[in-house]
């Protein structure tokens, strides 16, 4: 029996199946769309101001504090221990939600939920440590699809139980606790990876090999390519005895890896294209997370849960479905993103800003719901495009680095928004005014990329004008051609 299990674990199907089960159960949280009504209801008896200004900000702060160390430790310990830690954090979070009372207890609960979100990186990173490159695309598709299906089913189930079966929020949280406990059990069945992206690279214990693909245009030096070929040839023959005697100590190896990571990041962000896509990623993700974190508070303000029907679960289910459709559409979009990418960022960011302004000014809960659907779908469309534009030019290792750093920058920006606008020690704004701030924030993002796209358009027109004048008939002297070029560009500008 043990031999069969070991043989099965060596294939890609066994870890993929267990990982999909883990993803399904940890996303099956029917109570999540009803968190604010639960906290402000008879179960916890917290005020809306306490939830908004003192409890929810703790999640942002803990997430920020834990993200970088967890990102590095995840790779160092090879993922599975972090998945176990995530399971423990899930269970602790929902035990506190069910049985703890008081402001401080709910702040501790938010800290553990920050641990949950910080450790999410291990879920997708684990795939690439146990699956061969031939199966990356298929396994990634399976894992992402199962989480979307689980999130949709959870929202629908929660709404049906609340609306039709009159199930209490307490019992919804009990169902969620059972689901995340099953996810924790599944994590024990995952085989322990033998390698990782950075600290335990297969076939190299001393230095990080160069990525398979690098940022387009970053390296055109042929001597570097030759050196890489020599390194590959040397790697095929294995290290000689002298090299084995000079293997670095573990602490030196960690330091060398960290230095290499810093160099890789510098190379990645030296590409202007990747820099602008990453800028939008960080800015928009900060605003998106802030809106999603506080949207239930706004809904409860527009239609108080103690006196109105609550449709949070149905809205989240529709939003998840629309996000899936938006992500799916990207695969069939035939567009020159190098030419129109930043214009698309500006236009859809404008849609996000308009949606947030509608949420601020309207008093109708249904308009608020519809605006949220538009906001979430347009963001998901753009983040899918941004992910593709960044990942297509990078090796998997460099993409993981940029993904981590972009999310960290987003979290820093989100923390600033929280400290200034939300936290009771800052301005402590009411929820309606907060959404005015978020709408203005996305307006600034839209303005940045619309202005940038206009500047690029003018620059390209000028360049085409220059090329056309340089290709004038040969009967013009060189001096006359240059004069017409300068005059054409000056007139255009």
UniProtKB/TrEMBL annotation:
> Which Pfam families has this protein been placed in?
Folate_carrier
A Gene Ontology CC term for this entry? plasma membrane
Localization of this protein: Membrane
Predominant location category: membrane
UniProt key word Membrane: yes
Q: Which residues cross the membrane?
A: 12-28, 58-77, 84-105, 111-131, 143-164, 170-192, 274-297, 309-331, 343-363, 369-392, 399-423, 435-458
- Keyword Cell inner membrane part of the UniProt annotation: no
Annotated membrane topology is:
Multi-pass membrane protein
UniProt keywords (A-Z) are: Membrane, Transmembrane, Transmembrane helix, Transport
The GO terms describing molecular function are: thiamine transmembrane transporter activity
InterPro entries registered for this protein in UniProt = Folate_carrier (IPR002666), MFS_trans_sf (IPR036259)
Q: Which family does it belong to?
A: Belongs to the reduced folate carrier (RFC) transporter (TC 2.A.48) family.
Q: Which PANTHER family match?
A: FOLATE TRANSPORTER, THIAMINE TRANSPORTER 2
- What is the protein named? Thiamine transporter 2
Q: Which organism is it from?
A: Chrysolophus pictus
Taxonomic classification, please?
A: Eukaryota, Metazoa, Chordata, Craniata, Vertebrata
């Amino acid at each position: 029996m043990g031999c069969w299990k070991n043989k099965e674990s060596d294939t890609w199907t066994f870890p993929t199946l267990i990982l999909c089960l883990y993803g399904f159960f940890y996303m099956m949280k029917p109570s999540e769309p009803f968190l604010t009504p639960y906290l402000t209801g008879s179960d916890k008896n917290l005020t809306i101001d306490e939830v908004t200004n003192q409890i929810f900000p703790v999640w942002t702060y803990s997430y920020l504090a834990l993200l970088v160390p967890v990102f590095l430790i995840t790779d160092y310990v090879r993922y599975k221990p972090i998945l176990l830690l995530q399971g423990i954090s899930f269970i602790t979070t929902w035990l506190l939600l069910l049985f703890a009372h008081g402001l401080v207890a709910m702040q501790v609960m938010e800290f553990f939920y920050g641990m949950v979100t910080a450790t999410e990186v291990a879920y997708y990173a684990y795939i690439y440590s146990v699956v061969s490159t031939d199966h990356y695309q298929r396994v990634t598709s399976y894992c992402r699809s199962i989480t979307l299906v689980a999130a949709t089913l959870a929202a629908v189930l929660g709404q049906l139980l609340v609306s039709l079966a009159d199930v209490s929020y307490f019992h919804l949280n009990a169902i969620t606790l059972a689901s995340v406990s099953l996810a924790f059990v599944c994590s024990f069945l995952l085989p322990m990876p033998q390698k990782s992206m950075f600290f335990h690279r297969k076939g190299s214990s001393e230095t990080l090999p160069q990525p398979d693909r690098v940022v387009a245009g970053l390296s055109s030096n042929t001597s570097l390519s030759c050196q890489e070929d020599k390194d590959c040839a040397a790697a095929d023959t294995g290290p000689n005895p002298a090299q084995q005697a000079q293997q670095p100590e573990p602490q030196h190896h960690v330091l060398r890896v960290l230095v290499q990571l810093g160099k890789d990041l510098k190379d990645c962000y030296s590409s202007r294209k990747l820099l602008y896509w990453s800028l939008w990623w960080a800015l928009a993700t900060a605003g998106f997370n802030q809106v999603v974190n506080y949207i239930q508070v706004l809904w409860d303000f527009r239609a108080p849960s103690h006196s109105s029907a609550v449709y949070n679960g149905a809205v989240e289910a529709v939003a998840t479905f629309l996000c899936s459709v938006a992500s799916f559409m990207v695969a069939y979009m035939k567009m020159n993103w190098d030419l129109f990418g930043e214009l698309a960022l500006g236009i859809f960011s404008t849609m996000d800003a308009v949606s947030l302004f509608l949420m601020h000014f309207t008093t109708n809960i249904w308009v608020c719901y519809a605006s949220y659907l538009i906001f979430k779908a347009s963001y998901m469309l753009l983040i899918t495009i941004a992910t593709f534009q960044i990942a297509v030019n990078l090796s998997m290792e460099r993409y993981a680095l940029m993904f981590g750093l972009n999310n960290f920058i987003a979290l820093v920006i989100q923390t600033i928004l929280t400290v200034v606008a939300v936290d009771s020690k800052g301005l402590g704004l009411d929820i309606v005014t907060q959404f005015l701030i978020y709408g203005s924030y996305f307006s600034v993002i839209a303005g940045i990329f619309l202005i940038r796209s206009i500047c690029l358009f003018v620059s390209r027109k000028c360049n085409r004008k220059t090329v056309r004048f340089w290709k004038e008939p040969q009967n013009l002297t060189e001096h006359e051609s240059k004069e017409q070029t300068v005059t054409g560009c000056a007139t255009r500008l």
